[in-house]
Specification:
Layout: H1 9-31, H2 34-54, H3 59-87, H4 100-113, E1 118-120, E2 123-125, H5 128-143, H6 167-173, H7 185-192, H8 197-207, H9 214-217, H10 219-225, E3 234-241, E4 252-257, H11 260-273, H12 282-292, E5 304-310, H13 320-329, H14 334-345, E6 348-353, E7 356-362, H15 374-395, E8 412-415, E9 418-424, H16 427-444, E10 454-457, H17 465-472, E11 475-477, E12 481-483, E13 486-488, H18 499-510, H19 519-538, H20 545-557
Parallel strand pairs: 3-6, 10-11
Antiparallel strand pairs: 1-2, 3-4, 5-9, 5-10, 6-7, 8-9, 12-13
Helix pairs in contact: 2-3, 3-4, 13-14, 13-15, 15-16, 16-17, 18-20
Pfam families: RVT_1 (PF00078)
Domain Reverse transcriptase: 221-488
InterPro entries: DNA/RNA_pol_sf, RT_dom
């Protein structure tokens, strides 16, 4: 069987995986319609129980009823697993087994993801082919086209780099790679074992004489060649709406669905890049930004300002030649840069629209959202912006730091593509940031979006408001402003500032009202959601008592909806849902 898959290791693996498609299709065809199987199994079980009722001591009928029950349970389990995968949700462990929830979720998900029309060229397109052409053309222009090949050298910025790769670290980065069979495949198998897929995969491989590992197909040979086949780096673009009611193609965010083999390879590289990047916590940025915005509504403080910069299509517009020059800037060895280049620059795209795949074009720029390497590479890209601004600050004697930032040299807070710049509210300081952003845009392709970027000015600097807004071209922002999903305020957190949190909880709980859940299931859902919201908001703020009471009031109303809560609160002191007086906010 191995003789049929001769060639390079990567080619052999891809051919073997393609051969498994026929195996899985045959198994799927053999199982047939899972919903129909459940219906037939239930009918057979009902007939067997009716016959058993006539002669309860017949051992043959008892055995028949037990077999029918096992068949029914197996068919129900298969249908439930299928619905869980289609609905992309996991049911409560030990909770209700009602599959109506999964059916409703699948139907709602299908309606939500359907894109029947689109606004393009001044008109609303309703023809499906026109909609497809509009999406494919937009993303081909955004991600494809002609690749820029500029001779770029950024090593003049090394004096302002926080760390440069040493020779010893370079040897670690380029040391021999472990095989996929021993390192990554075991991790992948653990993650998908609970879905019941790994056992089926291994059984099918053994039954048909295939082997994904070994000397011929192991990933040691794949990673040693570092020449990716096109099918390994082919990517599907899943469209996620960025706004509540998307109207244009630009309102959708393309999320890349990469090949599993490609992800396994890139995660090995990620493990090597990660130690060289400084660890950062999202709560640190929020707390520091919150501290800097304190007193913005006071007249007696020094004039200061902050820029919330929105980068247009941040991940999708990074130029590849700039990315490679950035890796050279930080001293990554040429071999490692070649590996990164092969993974990033050999990608191709197809757009997944309304359940079907359309178009096929090669990439020319951008970091894919969905690629395991993209967040780490984007951190390096944003580090170049910091170095450019720091160079300009040291060369410009007129720049004035933000209040309380001179001693620590703080002027930038960035987490992924969320960027905040702080300085004194004067034209020389703000103009320096403007020049730095323009230089960075010319090198990297990441441009600030004036329509979404904001300039927040303290109350003591309102005399310079018009000049600064005209200089930048940004919109004027007012506190509270959202940063990393949380509001940044200049004073104590109030009930009004927490309205986004309360609205999100109301929306989530309101979606559960029409679902036929038991009382215990609703209580479990509420407690899980409360804990989830508490983890993020509680990491940055102390929630006001009024917010806690409002959340408990909203949550306590849900279990009593309909007839599910009738008679459950009789004789109860705490009420239908006890949250122990807000103790959940302090756990």
């Amino acid at each position: 069987m191995e003789a049929l898959y001769r060639g390079t290791s990567m080619y052999a693996v891809t051919r073997k995986l393609k051969a498994l498609k026929a195996v899985f299709r045959a198994q799927r065809k053999k199982k047939g319609d899972l919903a129909l199987n459940v219906k037939l199994a239930a009918e057979f079980l009902s007939i067997a129980q009716c016959i058993l009722h006539l002669d309860r001591h017949n051992s043959l009928l008892l055995c028949l009823e037990a077999c029918c029950r096992l068949i029914f349970l197996k068919a129900t389990k298969l249908e439930q697993c299928m619905l869980q995968q289609r609905a992309k949700m996991q049911w409560l462990r030990g909770g209700d087994q009602c599959t109506r929830v999964f059916f409703q979720n699948c139907q709602a998900s299908g309606c939500k993801k359907d894109i029947p029309n689109q606004y393009c060229a001044g008109d609303t397109c309703t023809d499906q082919q026109e909609v497809v052409n509009e999406f494919v053309g937009f993303f081909h222009q955004l991600l494809g086209g002609e690749r820029r090949n500029r001779a770029m050298d950024l090593r003049y910025l090394r004096p302002w780099a926080s760390h440069i790769i040493t020779e010893e670290e370079a040897r670690i980065l380029t040391s021999p790679l472990l095989g996929l069979r021993s390192s990554r495949l075991s991790l992948i198998s653990k993650r998908i074992r609970h879905r019941g897929l790994m056992d089926t995969l291994q059984a099918s491989i053994k039954r048909h004489g295939l082997s994904l590992g070994g000397n011929n197909g192991g990933s040691g040979g794949i990673l040693s060649t570092w020449s990716l086949l096109k099918q390994v780096n082919a990517t599907l673009l899943a469209l996620i709406p960025k706004v509540q009611n998307p109207v244009t193609v630009a309102d959708f965010r393309p999320i890349s669905c990469c090949n599993v083999l490609y992800k396994a390879i890139t995660k090995i590289l990620v493990q090597r890049i990660r130690p060289f990047l400084a660890d950062s916590m999202i709560s640190d940025n929020i707390l520091l930004a919150q501290e800097l915005f304190a007193g913005y509504n006071q007249q007696r403080t020094p004039p200061r300002c902050a820029m919330k910069v929105d980068l247009r299509k941040a991940y999708d517009t990074v130029e590849w030649d700039f990315l490679l020059a950035t890796l050279q800037l930080f001293g990554f060895p040429p071999t490692f840069i070649k590996w990164i280049e092969e993974c990033v620059t050999t990608c191709s795209f197809s757009v997944c629209l309304n359940g079907t795949i359309h178009g096929f074009f090669g990439g020319a720029r951008g970091l894919r959202q969905g690629d395991p390497m993209s967040p780490y590479l984007f951190v390096l890209v944003m580090e170049v912006l910091r170095m450019i601004l720091q160079q300009l600050i040291e060369q410009d004697e007129e720049f004035t730091f933000h209040w309380k930032c001179r001693d620590i040299g703080l002027f930038q807070l960035s987490f992924a593509d969320d960027l905040l710049l702080f300085s004194s509210a004067d034209e020389s300081s703000v103009g320096l940031f403007h020049r730095g952003l323009q230089v960075f845009a010319g090198l990297s392709g990441l441009c600030a979006n004036p329509a979404k970027s904001q300039l927040i000015i303290s109350k003591s600097a309102h005399t310079h408001r018009e000049q600064l807004l005209h200089l930048l071209g940004f919109q004027e922002g007012t506190l509270p402003v959202r940063y990393l999903g949380l509001p940044l305020i200049s004073s104590r957190l109030t009930l009004l500032d927490c309205q986004p949190l309360l609205q999100k909880i109301d929306k989530r709980i309101g979606a559960w009202v029409g679902i036929p859940l038991s009382f215990a299931a609703r209580v479990q859902l509420i407690k899980s959601v409360l804990m989830a919201f508490n983890v993020y908001w509680g990491s940055a703020f102390i929630l006001p008592k009024g917010v806690i009471h409002q959340i408990e009031k909203t949550a306590a109303y849900l279990p009593m909806e309909g007839h599910y809560g009738d008679g459950l609160c009789e004789g109860s002191v705490e009420g239908c849902l006890s949250t122990d007086g807000g103790r959940w906010t302090r756990d």
